[in-house]
Design a protein that fits this description.
The complex is a heterodimer of chains A (241) and B (594). Chain A is of the alpha/beta class and 241 residues long. Helix content of chain A is 37%, strand content 25%. Chain A contains 8 helices and 10 strands. In chain A, strands 6-7-8-3-9-10 form a 6-stranded mixed beta sheet, with helices on both faces. A 4-stranded antiparallel beta sheet of chain A has the order 2-1-4-5, with helices on one face. In chain A, strand 9 and strand 10 form a beta hairpin. Chain A is globular, with a radius of gyration of 18 Å. Chain A starts with 8 loop residues before the first strand and ends with a helix. By secondary structure, chain B is α+β, with helices and mostly antiparallel strands. Helix content of chain B is 45%, strand content 14%. Chain B is built from 15 helices and 14 strands. In chain B, the strands form 2 sheets. Chain B has a 6-stranded mixed barrel with strand order 2-3-8-5-7-6. In chain B, strands 11, 12, 13 and 14 form a 4-stranded antiparallel beta sheet that branches. Chain B is elongated and about 105 Å long. The chains are: A alpha/beta (241), B alpha+beta (594). Chains A and B meet through helix 1, helix 2 and helix 3 of A and helix 1, helix 9 and helix 12 of B.
């Protein structure tokens, strides 16, 4: 049971340090963030500011070095690999910049894939969800195609369908328009906006201000910290100077 | 089992996606699995499959252990006493090889025969194709002449006529009434026995030594244990029997005991170890093949790092990732196994056609359900062996890095894993090559063993008296042999001819008691005088006997090494272990004779 009034994601004093050749790199330094159910948040900032690292931690693809992370009120920062995989599968939908469809699977199989990792989901239920997701993104007519037979925009729509099929608590999109031309990029952004209007919680990383404007709220990162928009501009000017 | 069908579909697609990779991997595995399957089909047929007799575990072979060697032949009188006195066998039979001259049924020919006791076929549970087997008492001296023929001879000489029973067959100028036909699939590879054309009761062997207790004459026994009797109990029982016989007949039976060997061990025991060693060697070959394919799989897995990072990001557990890759590797192994089974079927047939007699029970070798099960099992194991390392390696992806950077693998880890395989393969190859080298060296040494005679350009052949001379007097027989010798010697290319009775070097023996007192055993009247000089390489009591024609004076002497063999070669003379002979045998015996 989750408390609907509490934020879906609560992050407090989150840190992430990478150790390479005895050099410590502080990718995140005391990040506080909260995302409510149904919210559409865009995370932006200059390259290397830590936005993708933060998204990876939110998506349980990576673990924080320190701090607290509650997903649906449950602490998830210290889960083991298997438990993180289970939560990723059931609670999180991923949309990657490079689509990350599996080339040897058809459109249908790509969308079905995360559902096959769920225990005890019967085949008819999987099929129903896959078809609903594909119809939602307008790709039901291509379900027997392979990714290589689709355009970039179509592939990203299939990736969105894959993310939607599991009915996740939150959609995480990492530069979802990064590999698309502006027309297809705009189409994908419209799709995300539609999903948000239908109630989806979305957290998107983008460095493009035009697309960030689609979100309800923008979170700005700089040097591993969340900063206000005005502060971000000042910091960036200082950095350029 | 969610997604198993999808995993299988992907596995099949992967086979077709990279046909070059698949072909190399399948061929490599097919060779490795094929040689293992071929060898297992041999082991299955020779060692594992039950003997084709009812309750084969109750069958044992019986031999006489002599003071100076084990597993010798059983004298006929001792056999009769063993039959009578034992309490642990439901029946005991004996058999001895013999060659008969078959006449009166088309062109005369020499046929393979067996002198057997009457209960041999009953004991073995052999059901004749037509007629019956021998009845009790038909093997006694003086009983009516009856014979059994093989299905092969029945077909060849009698066109498989249904009215074969009661017909007469003439063997060594003696007419026997055919009472049954032995089925074609009857085979028994034990001492004293071979696949034959005719079977004659032992009582009809006109050998004056037959009733001599000290004469082995090449008979070996086979017995069926009573139900519930162990071979240890039977051995204890026969110890008592032979002890009593030794007390009753000390001259002939002193120091003689019965040797009991389970029939299967007797038939195939000598090939068990070589086959197991070979199985180990081909097992190494399969491991090397697995190492090679594992390396290929690793290389391919490195190209799929991104795919499995995506799968993991979407919620695949490590078990699912490993399962996916193992399904792919097992599919590959199964295809290789299928091709390997075909190779094994073909290879085993080809090998057995070249070496039909080198292996006992070779007729049982084939691809049956057990072999296919073995093939499936080793294919499964191979699939796991070569698939597990790539699967485990790829199940630990660096998710963020891989997904963001387009699937760049962890090259350090990859190289270490591949290095492990290369080192393992090298180690296995070295062991295998060392074993092969040692085996070849042993073979070369065996080839170079000096047998004590010169075997080059020597031909051997069997010789029977024509039926017309069976009742001829000794002088006429000697004259015939001399004429034969003269005729053969005069042929172009023949340098020398010699005749022996009893055995060909390295091919057999004939045992006769040889009392130390210089008593001469009854001579074979069929042999010429000079042939009847016995050469013995003997110790005490029992001798391995070869009667030979004297050395030709012009021939250079052979180095007289320890041995007892007689050669027919030009440069070889009858030789004996003169050192032993001088010590153990009466004067004038036990040396090369002239």
């Amino acid at each position: 049971m989750t408390d609907e009034s509490l934020p879906l994601i609560q992050i407090a004093d989150l840190t992430k340090v990478f150790y390479t050749d005895e050099i410590e790199t502080h990718a995140l330094s005391g990040v506080h963030l909260s995302i409510s159910k149904g919210e559409y948040v865009a995370m932006s900032g200059p390259s290397g500011c830590g936005k993708s690292t933060l998204l990876s931690i939110i998506g349980l693809l990576d673990t924080p070095t320190g701090g607290r992370y509650l997903l649906n009120t449950k602490s998830v920062e210290n889960l083991d690999f298997a438990e993180r995989a289970r939560i990723r599968n059931q609670e999180i939908g991923f949309i990657f910049q490079s689509f990350n469809l599996i080339g040897d699977l058809t459109v249908y199989e790509n969308v079905e894939l995360p559902l096959t990792y769920r225990q005890r989901m019967p085949s008819p239920e999987r099929k129903k969800r896959v078809m609903e997701a594909l119809e939602r993104v307008g790709m039901a007519h291509r379900l027997r195609h392979y990714p290589s037979q689709l355009s970039g925009g179509q592939q990203q729509r299939v990736a969105v369908a894959r993310a939607l099929g599991g009915k996740p608590s939150i959609l995480l999109a990492d530069e979802p328009t990064g590999n698309l031309d502006s027309r297809n990029g705009e189409a994908v952004m419209e799709l995300l906006a539609d999903l948000h209007r239908e109630g989806a919680t979305i957290c998107m990383v983008t460095h493009d201000p035009r697309f960030a404007k689609h979100a309800q709220r923008e979170v700005h990162l700089f040097d591993g910290k969340v900063v206000a928009e005005e502060e971000l501009h000042k910091l960036m000017q200082d950095a350029q100077a | 089992m969610n997604g198993l069908a999808q995993d299988l579909r992907v596995g099949v697609r992967m086979l077709f996606k990279s046909p070059g990779f698949t072909a190399v991997a399948v061929l490599t595995l097919a060779l490795g699995i094929g040689v293992n399957t071929a060898l297992f089909s041999v082991i299955n047929g020779v060692l594992l499959s039950p003997l084709p007799f009812p309750e084969p575990d109750r069958l044992v072979t019986l031999h006489e252990n002599k003071p100076n060697f084990e597993g010798g032949s059983v004298s006929y009188p001792n056999f009769r006493d063993w039959q009578k006195d034992n309490r642990t066998f439901s029946s005991i039979a004996i058999a001895r090889r013999y060659s008969f001259s078959l006449t009166g049924s088309g062109e005369a020919e020499q046929v393979r025969g067996e002198f057997v006791s009457s209960d041999l076929f009953t004991l073995l549970g052999v059901t004749p194709v037509v007629g019956r087997t021998f009845a009790e008492g038909e093997d006694q001296v003086g009983a009516g002449p009856v014979a059994l023929v093989s299905a092969g001879l029945w077909n060849r000489k009698f066109s498989s006529e249904a009215d074969i029973l009661g017909k007469t067959i003439v063997l060594d100028a003696k007419a026997y009434t055919i009472v049954g036909v032995i089925p074609a699939n009857f085979q028994l590879s034990v001492p004293g026995f071979r696949e034959s054309d005719v079977y004659v009761p032992v009582g009809h062997w006109a050998n004056p030594l037959l009733l001599q207790r000290g004469a082995g004459l090449g008979f070996h026994g086979i017995g069926r244990l009573k139900t519930g009797v162990t071979i240890e109990q039977a051995r204890a029982d026969m110890d008592g029997v032979t002890r009593n016989l030794a007390a009753a007949f000390p001259d002939a039976d002193k120091g003689i005991t019965a040797s009991l060997v389970p029939l299967k061990q007797q038939m195939v025991g000598h090939v068990r170890q070589p086959l197991m060693v070979l199985l180990g060697a081909v097992g190494f070959v399969l491991l090397i093949a697995c190492g090679n394919v594992a390396n290929l799989m690793l290389a391919r897995a490195n190209g799929r790092t991104r795919e499995f990072a995506v799968r993991t990001a979407l919620g695949a557990s490590r078990v699912r990732v490993v399962r996916q890759l193992l399904i792919e590797s097992i599919l590959l192994a199964m295809v290789g196994g299928g091709l390997g089974a075909l190779l094994a079927w073909w290879g085993a047939r080809a090998a057995l056609s070249v070496l039909p007699a080198a292996l006992p029970r070779s007729e049982q070798v084939g691809i049956d359900g057990h072999v296919l099960l073995f093939t499936a099992a080793i294919s499964l194991c191979a699939g796991i062996v070569f698939g597990i390392m790539p699967a485990l390696k790829i199940s630990h992806p660096r998710l963020q890095e891989t997904l963001k950077q387009g699937g760049r693998g962890a090259s350090g880890t990859r190289n270490r894993a591949q290095d492990v395989f290369v080192v393992a393969e090298m180690a296995l190859a070295v062991v295998l090559l060392t074993g092969a080298g040692l085996t070849i060296r042993s073979l070369v040494r065996l080839w170079n063993v000096d047998p004590g005679f010169n075997p080059h350009n020597v031909l051997t052949f069997g010789l029977s008296l024509p039926p017309s001379m069976v009742k001829a007097n000794p002088d006429a027989i000697r004259a015939a042999f001399r004429e034969f010798d003269t005729r053969i010697s005069s042929l172009a290319g023949i340098q020398a001819v010699s005749q022996s009775w009893g055995a060909i070097p390295l091919d057999g023996d004939d045992e006769t008691d040889r009392p130390d007192q210089g008593d001469r055993v009854q001579e074979n009247p069929a042999l010429p005088e000079e042939v009847d000089d016995h050469v013995e390489g003997i110790h005490l009591g029992l001798s391995v006997e070869c009667d030979v024609r004297p050395e030709q004076p012009a021939r250079p002497a052979l180095s007289r090494r320890a041995g007892m063999l007689v050669s027919l070669a030009r440069d070889v003379n009858a030789i004996a272990d003169s050192r032993r002979s001088r010590r153990r045998l009466p004067p004038g015996r036990g040396q090369a004779t002239r």
